[in-house]
C-alpha cells in the first residue's frame, strides 16, 4: 500500500490535495488515474482515504471519503543523537529512528563530533519517506543543536536515558521507563567515539540515567537501533 503526504494546510474538509513531489510521485511514478483510491497522512495524526477526482500538472486532488485520527504513540520517544561523520550512516540512523517511533530527532554537536555540516533538507526528506514506509501518521521533527546542554534544556520534562558502553550489562531493563507514559523519554546516543566523561557527568547531574546496550561496543547508528527497539510496541 502506497501512502502519500499532504500537510494539514492541504486538507480542506472533504478534499485533499497533493502538491509538488507527492503529486508527481502519484501521477508520474505510480501512474495513478482519476478514480483510483489513495491513502494520505498529514503528519499530525490524520489518515485519509478516497478517490482521485482531478489530476493537473501541479496537483492531484482527492475526495476524502474516510478519515481517522491517531494519538501520538506513548511513551513519546525523543532521540538525541551526536552527529555521525559519514552521511550514509547518519541518514541510516535517522531513517531507522523514525521507523522505530521517534517523535523528535535532536542532532547535536559534542566534544567528539567530527562532522560539522548537516544536510537538513535531506534528513527532512528521509523522515517523510520513513514515516510513510512504516505506515505512521505522525511526522517527527528533526532539529540541530550546538551542544548537549541545549538538547537537555529543550526537553525539561523528559526522562533522559544515556546509552553508555562503560555501564554494567546488568542495567539493560528499560521496562520501568515506559511505565510513566505521560513523561517523554529522551534517549541519548553519542557520536563516533562516544561521550566525553565530562559530558556524561553533566547529564547525570541533570538527572540522566545510564543504561547498557550489552557487553560489546556498537557503532553509533547501531546503538540508535538497539536503544529505540527497547520501546517497540
From TrEMBL:
Q: Which reaction does it catalyse?
A: uridine(1498) in 16S rRNA + S-adenosyl-L-methionine = N(3)-methyluridine(1498) in 16S rRNA + S-adenosyl-L-homocysteine + H(+)
Record's NCBIfam families? Answer: RsmE family RNA methyltransferase
Residue ranges of the Ribosomal RNA small subunit methyltransferase E methyltransferase domain?
A: 74-230
Q: Which CDD domains match?
A: RsmE-like
Q: Does the keyword S-adenosyl-L-methionine apply?
A: yes
Its protein name is: Ribosomal RNA small subunit methyltransferase E
Q: Which UniProt keywords apply?
A: Cytoplasm, Methyltransferase, rRNA processing, S-adenosyl-L-methionine, Transferase
UniProt EC number? 2.1.1.193
Query: Subcellular localization, per the record?
Result: Cytoplasm
**Superkingdom, according to UniProt?**
Bacteria
Q: Which residues form the Ribosomal RNA small subunit methyltransferase E PUA-like domain?
A: 20-64
Q: What class of enzyme is it?
A: transferase
The family classification in the record reads: Belongs to the RNA methyltransferase RsmE family.
Described by its record, this protein's role is as follows: Specifically methylates the N3 position of the uracil ring of uridine 1498 (m3U1498) in 16S rRNA. Acts on the fully assembled 30S ribosomal subunit.
Amino acid at each position: 500500500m502506497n501512502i502519500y503526504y499532504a500537510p494539514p494546510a492541504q486538507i480542506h474538509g472533504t478534499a485533499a490535495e497533493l502538491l509538488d513531489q507527492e503529486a508527481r510521485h502519484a501521477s508520474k511514478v505510480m501512474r495513478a488515474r482519476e478514480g483510483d483510491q489513495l491513502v494520505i497522512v498529514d503528519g499530525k495524526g490524520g489518515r485519509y482515504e478516497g478517490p482521485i477526482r482531478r489530476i493537473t500538472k501541479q496537483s492531484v486532488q482527492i475526495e476524502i471519503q474516510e478519515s481517522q485520527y491517531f494519538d501520538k504513540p506513548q511513551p513519546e520517544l525523543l532521540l538525541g543523537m551526536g552527529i555521525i561523520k559519514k552521511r550514509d550512516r547518519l541518514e541510516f540512523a535517522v531513517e531507522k529512528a523514525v521507523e522505530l517511533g521517534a517523535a523528535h530527532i535532536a542532532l547535536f554537536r559534542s566534544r567528539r563530533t567530527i562532522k560539522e555540516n548537516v544536510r537538513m533538507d535531506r534528513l527532512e526528506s528521509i523522515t517523510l519517506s520513513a514515516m510513510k514506509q512504516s505506515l505512521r501518521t505522525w511526522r517527527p521533527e528533526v532539529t540541530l543543536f550546538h551542544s548537549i546542554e541545549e538538547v537537555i534544556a529543550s526537553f525539561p520534562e523528559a526522562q533522559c536515558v544515556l546509552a553508555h558502553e562503560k555501564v554494567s550489562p546488568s542495567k539493560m531493563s528499560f521496562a520501568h521507563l515506559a511505565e510513566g507514559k505521560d513523561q517523554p523519554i529522551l534517549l541519548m546516543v553519542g557520536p563516533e567515539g562516544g561521550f566525553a566523561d565530562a559530558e556524561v557527568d553533566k547529564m547525570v547531574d541533570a538527572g540522566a540515567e545510564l543504561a547498557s546496550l550489552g557487553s560489546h561496543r556498537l557503532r553509533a547508528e547501531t546503538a540508535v537501533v538497539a536503544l529505540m527497539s527497547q520501546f517497540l510496541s
